[in-house]
Sequence to fold (210 residues):
Amino acid sequence: MSSTPSQWRERMASPLTWHYVAFAVMLAAVIGLSVRFGLDWVATNGRSTDALTTKQMQLKLLEREIAPLRGLDKRVDDSRAQMKSFYAKRIPPNYSSIALRIGELALKGPVRLTRVQYTQGPPGVDLTEISMDAGITGSYPEIMRFVNGLERDQSFFVIRALSLTGQQGGLVNLRLRVSTWLRPADAAASGLPLTPPTGNAPSNTGKEGE
Fold:
């Protein structure tokens, strides 16, 4: 049975009807706010997760970049200690010790050194190069024994050049150039010339053996 206009007016005038209407409106509002809050929370949580992931990646990249620097101070100290030990063990204390040691190795060869000339390079901050230019005569095994002795010696010798100048019978004549180093103060006190002497004339400074 359909409601008459008078019944509709009575229902609209009833407080209970308006309570139902108000409740429905409030329920709809609560549902709308809940949905909006849920959407906002999902969006915010997604942005937070993305930001956290980005920060973690940046942190890992930063850790990789600084990884080689970890313990750098210890490695620097170790390098300094190794350099100090190298200088103490392998750098000759003076020019006389260089000439004496090369003479001892020549006797062990045995080889004959002639026209031996010592010169020093430009002063360095830590070391100054000392060069020896000499003629060397001996049999091939004797010369190789002398050369190996130089390379393996406690003092630090570097062979710069070894060239054949002649051969007669079982003897070989070579030209030998060897470098070692002194501390700048020791090199300055050695009295060696700063540049090689010109010509073949004997020189009293930095020259041994004719």
In short: The radius of gyration is 46 Å. The chain has two domains: 5-64, 93-208. Confidence is low (pLDDT under 50) at residues 197-207.
